[in-house]
Every structure is written in C-alpha cells, then in structure tokens.
Design a protein that fits this description.
single chain, 527 residues, Rossmann fold, three-stranded antiparallel sheet, 45% helix, elongated
Length: 527
C-alpha cells in the first residue's frame, strides 16, 4: 500500500473529519523544502477524501516571527530590521504591500500550479484578531507547569520568572530582543534586553514596558502546541529534526496534552531535501531552489512526482542539471507502467508505482498513454524552429495520430519545460547547435571505416527510425570493429553533427533529424 494511503487509513481509523496544518516562517523566499511540507499534506488530505473522509488544509504563515538574519537574497539595508516581526517589514523591492506578501504570494501561486491550494492564514492576524487570546492566557497562567514540562522533556532550563511570551517592544519594534518577567492577568511586563538569534546577538534598546497579549507571541514550542489545540489539528508533516528525542514535537505534544487537554496530532516526519554535495536546502544558502523553479523545468506532474515517488522518510536529493532528466525518466516509466506496459517493475512494486503516477496528476488521469520523452525533446527542440516544426519532427518517431487538445496541451507544457531547462540548468554539453554544413574535421581511415559501416546500417530498409534502433546500430558498429570503448564512435558522431565531443543522447538526437540528412552527413565523412 502506498504511503499516502497508509497514513490516510490510520487517520480515518481515528475519525472521519481531519485538519492538517503546515507552517512556514516568513523570513525570505520559501524554498523547495517548505513546499515539501505542503505537498505531503495535500497528498494525504486527498487520499482521506478519496476514501470518504473530510479534510481541511491550512498554511500558517508565521509572519509574527522575528527576522533572525539577512539571507543573501535580501538587500543589506534590511539589517536595520533584524529582530522585528516579518509582518511589519516593508517589501524589499517595493512591488508589494509588505515583506510577507512579497514572498508568500508567488509561493502560493506556484503551489497552485501543482494543484496544492491550502488556505493561507496569517499568524500575526490571528493574534491581533484575538483568536489566540484564550490559549495565550492559559500559557501565561500556567507558565510554571510549562517550564517544568520543557525541563522534563528536553532538559532545557528556564528561570523562575520565565514567561512563555515574546512582547513586541513598543519602542524599537523588535520581538526577538524582549524578555517577559511579569503577568498581571491583563498585561505582560518586559525588558528589551537583547536576544540570541541563531549564532548572533541582537541588541535591545533598553526599553521597559507592558503590553497586552495581542502585542506579541508565544515561543515556538508552546505556540505549536496551542495551535494544535486551538485549530483541532489531527496530523502535520514535519522535518525529521523536529522529531528527535526530547525535541520540539515531544515537547509540544506534552504541552498540548497536559496544558491544553487536547490530543496531539499524528506526526508525519519527512527527510530533508539536499542538493549537490549533500548540503541541506535552506534560505541562508544564497541561491535557493523553489517549487516554481522545479515546475518551470520539469512540468507540474513531474514536480509532484518528485515528492510522492518515495516515502517521506526516504532520502531526497535534487539536482536541477542532469538529475532532471533522470527524474523525468522515472516519471515516464511510472506512466507507462500505469497504462499497462511492461517496464520490468517487480510485481510487488507495481501498485505503488501506479499510485505514484495517479498522485502526480494535476488535471485528472489521461484516458490513454500519449508520451514523448523528456530526453527526446531535449534534442528535438534544439533542431526545430517553432511548435509546428517540433510536431513535424516528432511525427517521424512518435505516434501523434489522434492527439487530443489535452494531450497537445501537456506536450506544449513539456516542451516549454525543456526549453527553460536548456536555458537555465542544462550542462554545457547538453546545449548544442546543429551544424547545417559539415564541419572541417580531419578523420583517420579507421574513423572513416566506422562511419562506412554505420552508413550501411542506417540505410537498411528494415531499420525503423527510432532512438533505440539508431543507438543500437551505432553500438553494433563498435562491437563489430572491436573498439576499446563504444564512446569512440559516439564521440565521432557528435563531432560530425554538433562539432562537439559530447551532447544529448545520440539516439534521440539523430531520431529528431531527417533520415536522409543523417545518412548524407555520415556518408560525407565516410568517403
């Protein structure tokens, strides 16, 4: 059984109605890891609904969190706002009404492209509108008990006068620099002494004052528990780091159950997404990867597939270069498997592979298999002038007969994704310009012999002009001539067509070209 169905059935065993909440701190552009949280939520929610249950999904925008450091994508001037809550910050480019809108609007728009449409909720507004009044009062009234729970679960010490509340300083507007020390049932007294944000100390302004409970926020572990209780959250995906023994989830669970008398939600832990070199994806890395960028180069369906193809706890790495081709091939294999083609998948894995495909669809499951591979398009779009020219070339190698409007739409999306990938992330040797005239290449007699034998094979009437057959013909020549490495003849052919030593998959490249043109070019160098 696929992992989304395992979670869905476990949750339905607890009740029919469910509520999933995901939260993201708004401290810059949300990266691909932020999308993972919401896409996992979406998959489980849809599985619950498929099985007859109900599920509401929200995205809590943690825009009351203070700005801890300045990511490289923000201007240096933003240092003046360190420690201030995100909802108060200006738009960095002056194009939106606020800092929060600048980063959340494109994130939500790109999530919608992969059919993920949670209800966005501003945490700052929830506090300001009084929706958190009750849970904040409970936390302040029972501060001593929460202090004891935190020590018991995590071993972390808090002072005797510690209060679970961060006021917004009335003087400097910072929230990361205040320390609450008294609660009279109406207002929280505080000192703006400065605070630690990550490895950095943010100085306070020295102001002392008192604010109401709508002018600040609970610390994260307490707020998480209070949010579960207040909203009635039944499950929530979360990074594996939050599930560590004595960590955030265990602390929040204890507070939720013992302070708020509410059941803690089912935790759905997931592995971090890592990029080349095993580096964890994060906002502070400067050049971040986003869900919008993935969709642009991989299509919405392939982007969704990336998240559903393996269990959330399985290792996930992403490479926007050659890794996109591999990802596309895996998705295309799952598509062929779904439509009953023999792809060599073991019998015990077929159900999950087909489910991966259905979970990846955006606009319903197609009525039939209509597939042009990503690898083939890499070659085709680079030797074509326009859309009609692309169709003309594909018709030589792919069955496009009876293509429906929806199938054409999907193909156009895939073509545009390939074009974007070539322009932004493709390795240099994958980008080429077809040499319309034979390049000036001095060849040895043995190289000419290789091309002579290849010309004979390509001219055979029974050779169907497909990428696989062309590849096999080239490889067969290398075997017949006992080449030390088959790459010798492949490199030779790249030279006569691209004037480069390497390029995209050769079978797909030649299949994208007119057969007579290919044969003529090979014969030109064979003579």
């Amino acid at each position: 059984m696929h992992w989304v169905d395992v979670y869905a059935e476990e949750l339905l065993g607890r009740g029919k109605k469910h509520f999933v909440e995901s939260g993201t701190s708004i401290s810059g552009e949300p990266h691909l890891g932020s999308a993972e949280d919401l896409i996992i939520s979406d998959g489980i929610a849809k599985a619950i609904i498929e099985k007859g249950g109900e599920c509401k999904t929200i995205w809590a925008m943690d825009d009351l969190d203070g700005l801890r450091k300045i990511p490289k994508q923000l201007p240096k001037e933003f240092e003046q706002y360190l420690g201030q809550p995100a909802f108060k910050l200006p738009c960095p480019d002056g194009c939106c009404s606020s800092f929060a809108e600048h980063f959340t609007r494109p994130f939500l728009e790109n999530l919608a492209r992969v059919d993920v449409k949670p209800e966005p909720v501003s945490v700052a507004k929830m506090y300001q509108d009084g929706k958190y009044d009750n849970v904040v009062r409970i936390a302040l009234d029972r501060a001593a008990e929460i202090t004891a729970i935190i020590k018991e679960v995590s071993g972390s010490e808090r002072g005797d006068d510690w209060l679970p509340f961060f006021p917004i300083c009335e003087n400097c507007g910072r929230i990361l620099t205040t320390q609450a020390y008294a609660w009279d049932g109406q207002k929280v007294s505080y000192r703006c002494k400065g605070g630690i944000a990550g490895k950095n100390f943010i100085p306070g302004c020295g102001h002392e004052g008192a604010v109401g409970i709508r002018e600040g926020k609970l610390p994260w572990r307490v707020e998480w528990a209070s949010r579960w209780s207040h909203l009635g959250v039944t499950f929530e995906p979360m990074g594996k780091d939050l599930m560590a023994s004595g960590g955030t989830y265990e602390t929040g669970k204890a507070i939720c159950e013992r302070i708020y008398n509410s059941p803690a939600p089912l935790a759905v832990p997931y592995e971090w997404i890592v990029i080349e070199g095993g580096k964890r994806l994060g906002k502070s890395a400067g050049r971040i990867l986003t869900i919008g960028e993935l969709v642009d180069i991989a299509t919405p369906e392939i982007a969704r597939y990336f998240f559903f193809r393996s269990k959330p706890t399985s290792h996930k790495d992403i490479d926007f270069g050659l890794g996109i081709i591999k990802l596309a091939e895996e998705y295309e294999m799952s598509e062929r498997t779904y439509f009953g083609q023999d792809t060599g998948i073991p019998e015990k894995e077929l159900e999950d592979v087909r489910r991966n495909y259905t979970m990846s669809q955006i606009s319903g499951i197609p009525e039939r298999l209509s597939q042009v591979s990503y690898s083939h398009l890499i070659s085709t779009v680079q030797v074509s002038k326009d859309w009609n020219h692309i169709l003309e070339k594909l018709a030589r190698t792919d069955d496009l007969s009876g293509m429906t409007a929806e199938e054409e739409r999907r193909l156009k999306v895939k073509v545009e994704a390939v074009k974007t990938w070539l322009a932004t992330h493709a390795p240099e040797d994958m980008v080429f310009q077809l040499q319309q005239e034979p390049p000036n290449l001095p060849l040895t007699e043995f190289e000419k012999l290789q091309l002579t034998k290849l010309s004979f094979k390509l001219c055979q009437a029974n050779l169907n002009w497909t990428a696989e057959n062309i590849h096999n013909a080239i490889y067969d020549v290398s075997v017949e001539l006992k080449l030390k490495k088959s790459s010798e003849i492949f490199g030779l052919i790249y030279k006569i067509f691209l004037n480069k030593n390497r390029g995209p998959r050769l079978g797909y490249l030649l299949a994208s070209l007119d057969r007579d043109f290919v044969v003529e070019r090979v014969q030109h160098f064979a003579n």
